[in-house]
Amino acid sequence: MAGQEQNTLLHLFAGGCGGTVGAIFTCPLEVIKTRLQSSKLALRAVYYPQVQLGTISGAGVVRQTSVSPGLVQVLKSILEKEGPRSLFRGLGPNLVGVAPSRAVYFACYSKAKELFNSVFVPNSNIVHVCSAGSAAFITNSLMNPIWMVKTRMQLERRVRDSKQRNTLQCARYIYRTEGIRGFYRGLTASYAGISETIICFAIYESLKKHVNDIRLSPSPAGGSERNSTNFFGLMVAAAVSKGCASCIAYPHEVIRTRLREEGTKYKAFVQTARLVAREEGYQAFYRGLFAQLMRQIPNTAIVLSTYELIVYLLKDHFK
Questions:
Q1: Of 5, 233, 306, 308, which sits with the fewest C-beta atoms within 10 Å of its C-beta?
Q2: Measuring CA to CA, how many Å separate 296 from each of 95, 96, 152, 229, 244?
Q3: Nearest-angstrom CA–CA distance, 146 and 93
Q4: Where are the Solcar repeats (predicted)?
Q5: What is the SS3 string spanning 66-80?
């Protein structure tokens, strides 16, 4: 029993460290992605010439349409209007939340894996899917208030040299204007996003099996060399699995951001999906995907590989 508790503590510590490292390195891309997902993104007006064939003179008219700015334009706008510090808005609640979030997630995942291994074929895809889904459900339910504050801070436009609300002030404002329920906006979209976690871990665990079978270098004794963690291989496995999962399940991210906006017309998951599709078209569900991939792939690679490395280095001390 003591061994199981120590194993859980190891996964808590490793998950927290991995999440913290990943959050710091990828925070600017997180801010850009959230801005791109927002309905308050300033769309550029583009004018296209259009010839009116039905007119006697054949004169052309100008047709206006709107184009969503890309990652570079949003980055340039933030730097020019708000300053470099705005690229790290929301890092406070992110750091406050990411360590316990990742710790809870990996601890729950490890515990669920032990449970489902006794029910299904050990280390099969169904075990990985059920474990990832259970861990994501518990983590999302517990951590949604912190992510709500983080999103609000990232969406808040900062005027250069002006004083903006800090994490505590933002949390108080949400409570004062929306009550306790305000902290749980976007939770339904987070539950829908469990599908992304399930897909990611199913692919990751499958790739991880192949990575662990690779010998870093020939060893006559076949001992520690064969059992050592292939750090680079795990990073590639994590990057591939997260990239595939993000592309498949990305629309829930846009819906979640819209639900967390202040003074928004978006009230529920299905209603938001219908509004976005009707008003902006289906391509709007993929706004910010490139920034998300640029952020999530290295972030997941850093988190999972750091987690695996710490577990590998410390597992002997927890036996």
A1: 5
A2: 16, 19, 20, 22, 11
A3: 6
A4: 6-115, 123-210, 229-313
A5: EECCCHHHHHHHHHH
Q: Is 65 left (phi over 0), alpha (psi -120 to 50) or beta?
A: beta
How far, in whole angstroms, is CA 169 from its chain's centroid? 24
192 closest CA partner among 126, 248, 152: 248
Whether the model clears a pTM of 0.90, i.e. scores above it, the answer is no
Backbone angles phi, psi at 45, to 5 degrees: -85, 125
- Interacting residues of 134 by C-beta distance below 8 A, sequence separation 6+: 108, 109, 112
What pLDDT does residue 227 have?
A: 45
Are 195 and 132 contacting, i.e. CB atoms less than 8 angstroms apart?
no
Q: What is the C-alpha to C-alpha distance for residues 299 and 310, in angstroms, rounded to an integer?
A: 16
Q: Which two tokens mark 106?
A: 């990996």
Angle at 19 between CA 18 and CA 21, to 5 degrees: 70
Residue 68 is predicted with a pLDDT of 65
Amino acid at position 62, single letter: V
pLDDT along the chain (319 residues), means of 10: 64 73 80 84 50 48 55 84 81 76 82 91 86 91 91 76 76 93 93 88 82 58 49 78 88 92 88 93 90 78 76 70
pLDDT of residue 184: 94
Beta bridge partners of 50: 61
Our separate counts of H helices and E strands in the chain read: 12, 2
Q: In this structure, what DSSP letter does residue 88 have?
A: G
- How far is it, in rounded angstroms, from Cα 135 to Cα 140? 9
HEC letters along 254-275? HHHHHHCCCCCCCCCHHHHHHH
Q: Which helix (H) or strand (E) holds 50?
A: strand 44-51
In whole angstroms, what is the distance from residue 147 CA to residue 124 CA?
Answer: 32
Nearest to 204 by CA among 171, 168, 235: 235
- How far is residue 7's CA from residue 44's CA, in Å, rounded to a whole number? 53
Query: Which position has the token pair 């998950």?
Result: 15
User: Which H or E element spans position 148?
Assistant: helix 125-155
